[in-house]
Amino acid sequence: MSPKSKKNRSPVKLKMRHRRFRKKHAAIGSRPGELVKHAIKDCSARLIEFAPGTDEYNNREIAEAAALPELDSDRVRWLDIQGLGDLPTIEAVGKRFAIHPLALADAVNVPQRPKADIYGDQILVVMRMVRLAEDQSVQAEQVTLLIGKGYVVTFQEKPGDILDPLRKRLADSTSRVRNSQSGFLAYAIIDTIVDGYYPVIDAIGDHIESLESRVMNDPSTETLVDLNHTKNLLVDLRRSIGPQREAINSLIREPHQAISDDVRLHLRDVYDHCIQSLDVIEMYREMSTGLVSIYLSAVANRSNDVMKVLTIMASIFIPLTFIAGIYGMNFEHMPELKFRWAYPLVWLAMVTISSGMLAFFWKKGWIGK
Amino acid sequence: MSPKSKKNRSPVKLKMRHRRFRKKHAAIGSRPGELVKHAIKDCSARLIEFAPGTDEYNNREIAEAAALPELDSDRVRWLDIQGLGDLPTIEAVGKRFAIHPLALADAVNVPQRPKADIYGDQILVVMRMVRLAEDQSVQAEQVTLLIGKGYVVTFQEKPGDILDPLRKRLADSTSRVRNSQSGFLAYAIIDTIVDGYYPVIDAIGDHIESLESRVMNDPSTETLVDLNHTKNLLVDLRRSIGPQREAINSLIREPHQAISDDVRLHLRDVYDHCIQSLDVIEMYREMSTGLVSIYLSAVANRSNDVMKVLTIMASIFIPLTFIAGIYGMNFEHMPELKFRWAYPLVWLAMVTISSGMLAFFWKKGWIGK
Amino acid sequence: MSPKSKKNRSPVKLKMRHRRFRKKHAAIGSRPGELVKHAIKDCSARLIEFAPGTDEYNNREIAEAAALPELDSDRVRWLDIQGLGDLPTIEAVGKRFAIHPLALADAVNVPQRPKADIYGDQILVVMRMVRLAEDQSVQAEQVTLLIGKGYVVTFQEKPGDILDPLRKRLADSTSRVRNSQSGFLAYAIIDTIVDGYYPVIDAIGDHIESLESRVMNDPSTETLVDLNHTKNLLVDLRRSIGPQREAINSLIREPHQAISDDVRLHLRDVYDHCIQSLDVIEMYREMSTGLVSIYLSAVANRSNDVMKVLTIMASIFIPLTFIAGIYGMNFEHMPELKFRWAYPLVWLAMVTISSGMLAFFWKKGWIGK
Amino acid sequence: MSPKSKKNRSPVKLKMRHRRFRKKHAAIGSRPGELVKHAIKDCSARLIEFAPGTDEYNNREIAEAAALPELDSDRVRWLDIQGLGDLPTIEAVGKRFAIHPLALADAVNVPQRPKADIYGDQILVVMRMVRLAEDQSVQAEQVTLLIGKGYVVTFQEKPGDILDPLRKRLADSTSRVRNSQSGFLAYAIIDTIVDGYYPVIDAIGDHIESLESRVMNDPSTETLVDLNHTKNLLVDLRRSIGPQREAINSLIREPHQAISDDVRLHLRDVYDHCIQSLDVIEMYREMSTGLVSIYLSAVANRSNDVMKVLTIMASIFIPLTFIAGIYGMNFEHMPELKFRWAYPLVWLAMVTISSGMLAFFWKKGWIGK
Amino acid sequence: MSPKSKKNRSPVKLKMRHRRFRKKHAAIGSRPGELVKHAIKDCSARLIEFAPGTDEYNNREIAEAAALPELDSDRVRWLDIQGLGDLPTIEAVGKRFAIHPLALADAVNVPQRPKADIYGDQILVVMRMVRLAEDQSVQAEQVTLLIGKGYVVTFQEKPGDILDPLRKRLADSTSRVRNSQSGFLAYAIIDTIVDGYYPVIDAIGDHIESLESRVMNDPSTETLVDLNHTKNLLVDLRRSIGPQREAINSLIREPHQAISDDVRLHLRDVYDHCIQSLDVIEMYREMSTGLVSIYLSAVANRSNDVMKVLTIMASIFIPLTFIAGIYGMNFEHMPELKFRWAYPLVWLAMVTISSGMLAFFWKKGWIGK
Questions:
Q1: Cα–Cα distance list, D145 to C43, D97, D151, D193 (Å)
Q2: Between 20 and 30 A from A222 (CA), which of A99, A369, C127, E20?
Q3: How far apart are alpha carbons C274 and C190 in whole angstroms?
C-alpha cells in the first residue's frame, strides 16, 4: 500500500473483543444451572447502601461472603460484582439473595442474549454494555441485573464499567436516584448502559465517513476488509440492542411490584433510545452497503485507467513501428528509399498519425482530463 | 471530468444538514430529564392567542418568561419557541405549562425519534420538519408539539419554518382552524409538516431522473457517490416519516380528550399522506438501486470500448509489422528481395490482410456502429 | 446499436404516464379539504339510473349542476364524472350527495393511495385503473367511488375508461347488476377495474420474455435501461394493487349497510384476483432481477471475446516478429545468414510456432468453437 | 459450446408448461361467475361410489349429464372431471351438486390461487398439482375440490393425474379411506397432491447439484439462463405451495361439518409437509443465488486466464524484439556489430531475460501451476 | 492451485451428510401413517428405568418386543431406539406405548420438520441433533421424543448420539433428573440436543475466520465454493433450529400434564439458547456475504495486477522498439546514420524515455509498492 493511503486511515481501531461470539457454555449434557469456570479469576464485590429520603449512605468493598448484607426493606442496596471468576463468592451471593439457579447461570455463563425474565419477586435483566477502550477498540461485556424489593445485584463480566457518573449521583443525597426505590436504581443503571451506545455508534459513524474517502482513493482489498469489519461490528451492535429493546419493552408492559409506574415512564424513554440507536445502526449499515458499490466502482475505474494507458501507448506506437518496419525491408526495388525527402516525409507522416490518434483519444475523453 | 458531464449535473444540492445523525445527548449517566446545552443561543417565543367563534386574535412576541400567559379554558393559545438555546426560558415554559421533565427533555435533546406519548392530560408529539433551503439543500429539524386543553406549545430546533401559511389562516377569522379547539390547531400543524415532505420528495425525484442520464453518459465514481448520497437521503427521510406515521396512528387510535372525533378523521388523512410519502420513497429507493446496476453496466461497457480500440489497433498492425519484419531479414538467399514487383505485392498483401481484419471486426459489430 | 437488435425489440412501449408520482397536492399549509385546480378543464358527467326488477332505465349526460338527480331510495343511480377540471360542478355534486369535504378532496387531489374509508353512511373507495393505450403505453388514473344507499358516484381522473362492458350489462334488463342494489353495482365497477390489470400484466410478461433474448444477444446499456423501466413499472403496479387489496379486504370485513353478504362474497373473489396479480407481479420482479445477472454475464462474456481476439493475435505474431527481428540484425558474424536453406527453415519454424499456438488455443476452447 | 459441457448437462428438462402465468380470464367487465371457454375440448367424468363399512363399490364413466347420481347420504361419491372443455357438462354438474356460480367459476377459470373457501355446506378447495412428465418437464395443473356431505367433486384442468394409487386404495374394501366419510376422501386427495411435490423438488435438487459443476466448468451465458429458469421454477412452486399451506391451515382451523376432528389431525400432517416443502424450496433458492456468485467468479477467472496468456507472451517477447531491433539499426558507428562474439552474446542476453521473466511469472503463480 | 493456498485450507471438513434434504417419503398416495423401509437395518433398544427419590435404577438392552416394560406410574422409563431399520420392533413399541400412527410415522419417515404436537396424553417432539463426526464433518439426524406420564420414548435415526453425559447423570442417584418425573427427563434430552449445536456453530465460526484470509490470498473458485458450502450449511442449521425454537415455545405455552411449571421454566432457558444460536448463525451468514464481496474484490485486484504488468512492459518497450525501428530503415538520405555519436545518443534517449515511463508508473503507484 502506498504511504498516502496510510495517512487516510482513521486511527480508530474498531474491533469488538476477539472471539466475541464464543459462548462460555458448560459441557454438553451438564446439569441445568451449572456454572462455567472462567479463566480470569478477578472478582470484586462492592456494596452501595442507602436509605431513600435520609442522609444514610454507605459504599464499601465486600471482601468475603460473610460480609454480605442481611436484607431488610428500609434500605436500598446495590451489590455490584465485577468479574465472574470467583464461583464460591457468586454462589454465596446467589444464596443470600435467593437467586434462582437458572438466573445465576445466566449471569455467569456469558454471553447470554439480552432479556428480561421474571423469577418470582425478582426480575432478571441481561444487558450488554459497550464502551470504547483507550486504544479505541470496542469493548463489550454482559451486565446482569437482579432487581428485587430493596436491592439490585449486578454481575459484570469484567472489571471496569461506564457507571461511575451514576455512582457519583448516588453519593449526592439530593439526587433523585438516591431518594427512590430499587426500581429507579435499576432504571438508572439500564439507562446509563443504553446511553453508552451513543459514543460507540458515533465513533463508527466517523469511521464510515473516513471510509468513504478511502474507498474512492485507495480501493485496496484491505480497505474493503476494514469496511466489512465495520459492518460486522454494526451487526453485532444490532444483535445486542435489538433484544435489549424487547427486554425493556417487556419490563414496561408486564406488571411487577419492583417497577413502579414512574419507573415505567422513564423506561419508555430508554426504550425510545434503543429504537433510535437501532435506526442509526440500520442507516449506517445501508451506508456501508452503498460504500461497497462505490468501492467496486473505484476498482473498475482503476482497471480502466490501466487499460487506457496501455491502449494509448500501443495505439500510437504500433502503427509507427509498422511504418518504420516497411522501410526497413530489404527489397531491391523500393523507389522511396532513394527519394531525397523520403526520410523527412516519413517523419511527417508519423507525426500526423500520432497527432490523429491523440486527437481521437482526447475526443473520447481518455486523455487531457 | 469532462465539461459535458458538468452540464448534466443537476444544480440541486441534495444534502441533509451535516452531522445529521449526531444526537446532542446529555453526558452518559446524567440524571433523567437533564437538558442539553445548545451551541446556538437563538431562542424566540411567539404567542398566537384567539377565542374560537369570536374576532379576538392576538399575535405577539414573548420577550421574557414573565410574559407567558396564564392558562384559562376560553381561549386557544399557540406558543411557538424557535431555537433551543435559551434553557431558562424553556424551563420557565415547562413550568408554566406543567410539562413533564422527560417531555421537556425530548423537546430539547434533539433529535428524538418521532413519536406520540401521553403525559397525563398532555400529548407530546415529536415531528421532523424538512424543507428545501434556498441553496437547495435539505434542511431537517425537530418540531415538538405539546397539546393540552386550550393550548399547543411547539419547540422548533432552529429559527425559520414552513408554517407561515397556517399562521395566515389563523389570522383569518373565518377559517376553520380559528374556530376550533387546540386539537384542530395541532392537527393543522402536523398536517403542514407532513405536507412539507412532498416538495422535498419531488426534488429528489427530479434529481434521480437527472442521475439516470448521468450514470449512462458519465459513469464516474463521483456520479455514484452522488447516487449514494441520494439513497442515504431517502433512507433518512424514511427514517423520519416511518415513526411519524406510527405516531399519528397512535393519536388516531388512543382516546384522549384533546383529540376530538373530527380531528381524528382529519388525522386519518395525514396518516394516508405519510403512507403515500413512504410508498414514493420506497419506489425511489428501488429506482436508485436499479441505477447502480445501470452504472456498473456503463462502466463495463466503457472498459469494453477501451479494449476494443486496443484489440483493433493491435490485430491490424501486428501482422503487418510481422510481414515487414520478414523482408527486413538479412539472409543472403531470399529470392523475393530481388523480384521486381515484390514490394508492391507486399503492399497488396498488407492491404488485403488489414481489410480482412476490418471486415471481421465490422461483422462482429465492433466498428462501424 | 446493430440493426439486428432493433428487430428483437418488442414494439410494446411500456411506460407509465410521465410524472406519475407527482401529486397534485394543494399548497403546503392550505386548509383541509381544499381542492386542487387541474390544468385540463375537461369534465363530463353521465348518469345511469335504473330501478332493479323493472324495465326502467335511463342513461343521460348531465350538462349542468341543476340537472343532478334528487335522491330517492327506489332507484339505483350511477353518476360518473370523467375529468376533474370543473371544480364548481364537482362541488355541486359534493353538495347534492352530501359528500364529506375530505372525501371530495381525496377524489380531486389525485393521486391518493388506494383505500376504503367509511364516512357515515357513505363508503369512499379510491381505486387505481390501468389500461394499455393504443400506443401500448400504460395509462394509469385514479377512480374514486362513493357508495351510498341507492347511488354510486365515480370520479375519474381523465376521460375514457375500461367500464364500457359493464355499461352494456347495465343496459341489459336481465343482467344481475341491473337487478341489484348499489352495493352490487359498486362491486361490479371494482371488479372490472381489478380485472383490467390482467392485460397490462400480460403485456409486461411478454415484454420480459422478449427482454430475455435481448439481454443475451444485445447487452447494451439501453437494454438494461429498458429492463429497469419495466421493473419500475412493476413496482408501480404493486404499489397500486397492494393497497387496493387492503381496501377490498376492509370492505369485506367491516360491516356496512351498503355492502350485503352476497356482495361480500363477490368481493372475496375480487380480493383473490388482487392477490393473484400481486403474486404474478412479484414473480416478474424476481425474473427481472435474474435478467440483470444474465445481462452482466453477457457483458462480461463480450469483453472476454474481445480479449481473446487480442490475445490470440498478439500471441501468434509477437514471437514471429521477434524471430524476424533476430535475422534483421546487422552483426557481421551471423553464420545463419549465409546458410542456403536458412530462409525456408525460418519460415518452417514460424509455421511450426504458430501452429503450436493455434493448437494451444484450440485446446483451451478459445477458437474453433 | 464445447462438447464436454454438453455431457455435463443434466438430461432433466425442468420447465413449467409454457405460458404458465397466463390466466384464462373472462373478458374484462364480464358478469361474475361467467365461465371461460377452453380451447381443448377434452372432458371426461368418472364416478367412484362406495358405502363405508360395506363391500359396495362402483367405478364408472359418466357419459352424459343424465347419468349424474342423485345425492343420498348413505354413500360416499367421488365425481372426477378431467378436462374443462365441455361447459354444458360442467354446468350440469354444478346444477346437480348445487355449486355456487363463483365456486364453479373458480374451478373453470384456471389458474386460481390455491385457497379454501366455505360456500354454505360445501367447501371449495383450489389446489395445484405438479408432476414430472415423461420428458422430465414439470407439468402443473389446477385441481379444484368441492367437498360436501357424502361427496367430493374434483375438477382437473387436464386429463391424467397422480391419483391412481389412491384409486387403488379405494378399490380395496379394507382400506381406511374406503371406510370413512367424504372428509377423509378429500384429505386423501389433498395429501396425495401435496406428496406429489416431493419428486419434483427432488428433481430440481438434482438439477441444482449438476449446475454447481457446470457453473464452474462451463460458465457460459446458457448455463446462467438454465440456472435462472430453475430459480423461476422454484419461485413458481413456492407460489403454488405457499397459499396451499394457508388453505390447509384454514381447513384445520375453521369448524365445518365435512371435516371431522380425525381428518383435522391428518390435515395437520399435510400442513407439515407443505411447510417442509417450502423450507426445501427456500434452501434451494439460496443455493441458486450462491451459484450465481460462483458463476460470476468463474467468468472472471476465465478472463483472468486469457489476460495472463497475453501478458506472459507480450512481456517475454517485447523486450527481446526490442533488443533485436537495436542491432537492426543501420548506424555506421556501432562497434558491437563488428565484435566476433556479439551475436552469441545477444542470444545469451535474450535467454537470460526470458528466463528472468519466466521465473518472475512462476513466482507470481501465473505459470507452472 | 499453488501449494501455499493448500496450507491455508482449514482441515475442518464442514459438510452435512450427503443427500441431506432427500426425504425418505412413502410412495405418493400411500395410506396415511405408512412407515417407510430404511436401507440400514440397525436397530437397538435400550431401556433406562428408575424410581425418583429411590436408589432403584436399571439400564438394560431390550432384545425382543416381549421384553418391553409394562407401564406403571411409579417409575420413570426412557426407552431409546437407535436406528429405524427394524419396523416390527418399532411397531411393537408403538403398540405397547399406544402411539398414534401419524406420530409413529413422523418418527420413522425422516426427516420431518422439528415440531411439537400433542396426541391426547402424549407429546410428540421432533428434534434435529447435530454433531461433529471424527472426520470433522457435520452429522445430522432426527431424534423424535414421545413424552407420556412416566416414560419418554426416543427414536434416533442412526446409532450414536451426544446424550452420554445425560446417561451418566441418570446413573447418579443424587442428580436432579434422576429425582424428577418424565417431563424433566424430556427437558434434559432436549436441552442436551440444543446445547449440541454450540460446538458445531463454533467450528463453522473458525472455518469462516480461516476463509477470510483465504479469500484475500487465494481467490480461486474453489475457495468460493467452500464459502458457499459453508453458507448452505448455515442455512441448513437455521432451518433446523428455527422450527425447534417454535416447537419449544409451544411446549412452554400450551398446558399439558406432562410439562410441569418447573420444567417450563427450564424450557425457557432452552428457548433462549435456540434464539442465541439463531442470532449467531445469522451473524455468520452476514459475514459470509461480506466475504463474497471481499472475494470478488480480490479477484478484480488480481486481474488488475496482471494488466499492470502487461501495461508497464508494453508501455516501456513499444516506444523503444519504435526508435530502433526508425534507425533500421534503409533510406539513403538519413544523415543521423553517419553521425559519429548517434548510436550512444539513441541509447541515451532510450534510457531517458524508459526512466520517464518508470517515473510515471511509480507516481501512479503501479510499481515500487
A1: 49, 12, 10, 12
A2: A369
A3: 11
Q: What share of chain C is helix, strand, coil (3-state, %, to 5)?
A: 55, 15, 30
- 8 A C-beta contact, residue C232 and residue C286: no
pLDDT tier at D11 (50, 70, 90 boundaries)?
very low
Domains of chain B: 3-296 (3.30.460.20), 303-363 (1.20.58.340)
Out of B223-227, C89-93, D244-248, give the one with best mean pLDDT. D244-248
Contact C177 D117 (CB under 8 A): no
Residue D70: how many CB atoms within 10 A of its CB?
5
Residue A26: closest CA among A92, A106, A95, A93? A106
Q: Which amino acid is at B280?
A: V
**Contact state of B325 with C329 under an 8 Å Cβ cutoff:** no
Question: What is each CA distance from C365 to A100, B214, C314, C362, D5, in whole angstroms?
Answer: 71, 39, 17, 5, 11
| Separation CA A302–CA C258 (nearest Å) | 67
Distance from the Cα of E283 to chain A's closest Cα (Å) equals 7
Cell numbers 417431563 label which residue?
E183
- For residue E63 the three cell numbers come to 432384545
Q: Does this complex have an ipTM over 0.85?
A: no
Residues of chain E with pLDDT under 50: 1-12, 16-21
* pTM of the predicted structure, to 2 decimals: 0.84
A121: DSSP letter: T
- C293 contacts D292? CB cut-off 8 A: yes
- CA distance to D159, E309, E311, per residue, from D312 (Å): 64, 9, 12
Q: How far apart are CA E195 and CA A29, in angstroms?
A: 7
- The DSSP code sequence of A191-216 is HHHHHTHHHHHHHHHHHHHHHHHHHH
d(CA B204, CA B291): 14
Spatial separation of the C-alpha atoms in residues A172 and A175, rounded to whole Å: 6
Q: What does the buried/exposed string (b/e) look like for A325-342 if buried means 16 or more CB atoms within 10 Å of the residue's CB?
A: bbbbbbbeebebbeeeeb
Contact yes or no for B221 and A294 at CB 8 A: yes
All cell numbers assigned to E25: 417419503
pLDDT digits (tens, 9 = 90+) for B21-35: 455 566 677 777 788
Omega into B111 within 30° of 0, i.e. cis?
A: yes
Whether residue A68 contacts residue A151, with contact meaning beta carbons closer than 8 Å, is answered with: no
- Count other Cβ atoms within 10 Å, centred on residue C37: 11
Interface test with D, best of C262, C326, C338, C358 (most D CBs within 10 A): C326
What are the tens digits of pLDDT across the range C191-228?
Answer: 999 999 999 998 999 899 899 889 888 888 889 889 99
Give the Cα separation of A143 and A130 in Å (integer).
10
Q: Quick one: closest CA in A to E335, which residue?
A: A343
- The more confident residue out of E67 and C83 is C83
Neighbouring residues of E41: CB distance < 8 A, sequence distance ≥ 6: E83, E85, E86
Residues 6+ apart with CB under 8 A from B357: B312, B315, B316, B319
